[in-house]
Design a protein that fits this description.
This protein is α+β, with helices and mostly antiparallel strands. It contains 30 helices and nine strands. It starts with a helix and ends in an 8-residue tail after the last helix.
Length: 741
């Protein structure tokens, strides 16, 4: 027994003293790096294996923590990593034509770089640890990624492969020329049907790979589950799936870039849209001359490769019309011709909603940027991926960022994505050039959307004099900024906009100019002219009414907001209707105010019902006021309700309503009119207290009668003087309040 206890203690101590080496990873251009953090310095060696490499460390009790390896890298270089139970070494499965270059960064830190290309001839790590020959990594290893079912690499070279293990690889197979494909049943027939050793080994290998990648969590079964004797849930209705399930794949925490659209089409990859490599730093005339030098070859036949390169250069330079003309004149035959033609339109600022980039706004490649530029407007539910757009936009040449940035920013502002708009502005500013008026307008638009219109006004005003071709856009932005900041617009701005409307007649910018002109006239309180122009621009009507409600003068309100009895109420938002009604009530037109509110009992806001009550009181209709604010219990409604009761000559009800409104002074005055002397006499804070007590004395029980006429006369004189003083003080402190009929 003591011997058994000693053995158990030794086994547990082996586990207890085992040390852990954490393996971390990271992807870099041209290589993948693995870093092993050892608890202390150990001797190590590394060599080749059939599937890759093996790292052996002198400490036999060392364990490897591989749970976070594939959370930051993919399987394009490192296909698999696991600890070899036989040797205790760290095994690396390689899925590329690359080589391992290990080195010790410092004692206890081992770094392994998997670099693309053939290994150096002098590399000592290309020799197997046991001295056996190993195949070079430029040939396919036995376990290489293979395509998912139905997507062969030959049929579609763009399809990325995934790592898979064929557990039937070690079994005998039928003649490869046989037309009958091998099935799972065939594999059992070729072997002993009771021998599941190959399947078991393959399953254990895949489970160990999954545990090493952090996909599978291995746990020990509990003793209770072993002794329970419960039958396994396998029966005639059990479903057992062996092999890959179409449409499903197991991945690590590191998500793959989205390369497929919802309809199964493939996103255009970044390499195809790498516009930054289509030009160079040479002077533009030299680049153009070199690109056109060899467009036509022998027998005056176009050189397709040269024409395509010249087209790409024109797109890179922003000469979209010239690029489309080149594609047409030389009849370029290429699967990417439609893509280049669309890009040529987009660099010229022309939308292309029906082009090849349609639906690619959700891609995680540069296609998301071109899809964003191709759409005339963004739909909030289908907005582009901001991170993909920003990544691709930042990679554009500086001159294209300057020219394409403003329109792209405006689209993101339309869907209230101010954060992405700011990031795009920063990318434009990093281009180095000043940018001119269009970039200033872009920046001002962001400031307005971010709630800082005053800064936008400050930036735009100096640009007006030298805006050049962008004068129209600058004036439009200035009007928007000044309106948002609550500033009056100079009448000269309206005159300049009027001239631009005539100059830009028929151009796409004309509606925006007309809108700015109308609002500028309204801001200058020339609402007569503004409402005359609204007939040709009905889309601006709501904005003009909102401007009238917010800043219109009394004259403008009287001229335009007093509607005929049979007139149809303009389709103005509720908030502006309430503002206009309140303004009309202020100038003494309650009937006109009620016309803007409509029926206060039908889907009206609380504010509208309060204004309606004020209007009814102004036109001596207390019952209408009480009906308008029925079920409203705030202090304002209670005060209006008290005024209505006062108009109805109901001082007691008015007093109660004023008490609910916390208006103590009005409450006491109404109580005095209701002759509630007992209540007033008990209220210490009331100025009516003394008068109420005086009334109480005259109506109370008779005192003991005085004897003699002289005593009676003196008492009457004293009471008269006391009452006279009390009433004089009351008349001096409180004005006379009469009920309104």
């Amino acid at each position: 027994m003591k011997l058994l206890t000693l053995l158990i203690w030794m086994a547990l101590s082996q586990v207890a003293f085992a040390q852990t080496a954490v393996v971390k990873s990271g992807d870099h251009p041209g290589f993948t790096r693995l870093v092993l953090e050892l608890p202390t310095a150990f001797d190590w060696k590394m060599g080749r294996t059939d599937e890759g490499y093996e790292l052996r460390i002198a400490d036999q009790n060392l364990r490897f923590d591989l749970t976070s390896v594939f959370t930051t890298i993919g399987h394009d270089r490192l296909a698999s990593i696991w600890a070899d139970p036989a040797t205790g070494g760290l095994r690396l499965g390689i899925a590329c034509a690359c080589f391992a270059q290990p080195f010790e960064f410092r004692p206890g830190i081992i770094v392994i770089d998997l670099r693309d290309g053939p290994p150096p001839e002098s590399s000592v790590f290309e020799t197997a640890l046991d001295g056996a020959d190993t195949p070079p990594l430029t040939t396919k290893p036995s376990q290489r990624p293979r395509s998912r079912p139905g997507l062969s690499a030959e049929a579609n070279p763009k399809v990325k492969t995934t790592m898979s293990y064929d557990w039937l690889a070690g079994m005998a197979r039928p003649n490869k020329n046989s037309a009958k494909p091998i099935t799972l049943a065939d594999s059992f027939i070729m072997h002993n049907i009771n021998d599941l050793t190959p399947f078991r080994d393959a399953l254990l290998l895949q489970l160990s790979h999954g545990a090493a990648q952090g996909i599978v969590q291995m746990t020990k079964p509990s003793l209770s589950s072993r002794l329970s004797g419960a039958a396994l849930p396998i029966g005639p209705r059990a479903n057992i799936h062996i092999g890959e399930a179409p449409g499903f794949d197991v991945e690590t925490l590191r998500a793959r870039p989205k390369t497929l659209l919802t309809d199964g089409a493939e996103c255009i990859p970044d390499d195809t849209l790498n516009l930054g490599k289509w030009g160079s730093d040479q002077p533009i005339p030299i680049q153009l001359a070199e690109s056109r030098a060899h467009l036509v070859g022998e027998f005056d036949r176009p050189e397709q490769g040269e024409v395509i390169d010249a087209t790409k250069l024109l797109i890179y330079l922003g000469f979209g019309a010239e690029a489309r003309q080149l594609l047409e004149q030389f009849s370029v035959k290429s699967p990417d011709r439609a893509m280049w033609n669309s890009m040529a339109k987009l660099v010229d600022g022309m939308p292309d909603a029906d082009g090849p980039f349609i639906g690619m706004q959700t891609c995680d490649t540069a296609a998301a940027l071109w899809a964003a530029m191709a759409a005339p407007h963004f739909i909030r539910s289908q907005s582009p991926r901001p991170e993909a757009v920003l990544r691709a936009f930042s990679a554009l040449p500086g001159h294209l960022r300057q020219s394409l940035g403003p329109d792209l920013v405006a689209k993101f502002i339309e869907i209230d994505d101010v954060a992405t708009a700011r990031s795009l502005r920063q990318a434009v500013q990093r281009s180095g050039a000043k940018g001119g008026a269009k970039v200033t307008v872009m920046s001002a638009t962001i400031d307005i959307a971010a709630g800082n219109p005053a800064k936008a006004v400050t930036d735009l005003e100096p640009e007006i004099s030298n805006a050049g071709p962008a004068t129209a856009e600058t004036l439009i932005a200035l009007v928007d900024a000044q309106l948002a900041a609550g500033q009056k617009i100079d009448p000269k701005t309206a005159v300049a906009l009027s001239a631009l409307v005539k100059e830009q007649s028929g151009n796409p910018i004309e509606p925006a100019l007309r809108r700015a002109q109308i609002l500028a006239l309204g801001s200058a309180d020339d609402f007569d002219q503004a409402f005359m122009l609204v007939a040709d621009s009905p889309d601006v009507e709501n904005d003009l009414w909102a401007l009238l409600a917010k800043s219109g003068s009394d004259t403008a309100i009287l001229n335009h907001a007093v509607l005929p009895i049979d007139a149809k109420l303009p389709a103005v938002p509720a908030e502006q209707r309430i503002q206009i009604a309140d303004h009309l009530l202020t100038v003494g037109l309650p009937d006109a105010a009620l016309a803007w509110i409509g029926d206060p009992n039908v889907a009206a806001t609380d504010k509208a019902r309060l204004i309606a009550a004020k209007a009814y009181l102004a036109k001596d209709d207390p019952q209408g006021a009480i009906t308008s604010i029925a079920n409203l219990a705030d202090s304002t409604a209670a005060d209006l309700r008290a005024q209505a009761f006062w108009q109805q000559d109901k001082p007691s009800e008015a007093a109660k309503a004023w008490a609910q409104a916390s208006n103590a002074e009005a409450d006491l005055r109404a109580q005095s009119w209701a002759q509630n002397w007992e209540y007033l006499a008990k209220t210490d804070a009331s100025r009516f207290k003394a008068a109420a007590e005086l009334v109480g004395e005259t109506t109370g029980a008779a005192a003991e009668p005085l004897q003699g006429p002289l005593a009676i006369g003196n008492a009457l004189v004293a009471d008269s003087e006391k009452a006279r003083a009390i009433l004089a003080t009351l008349l001096q402190d409180i004005p006379v309040l009469q009920p309104q009929n």
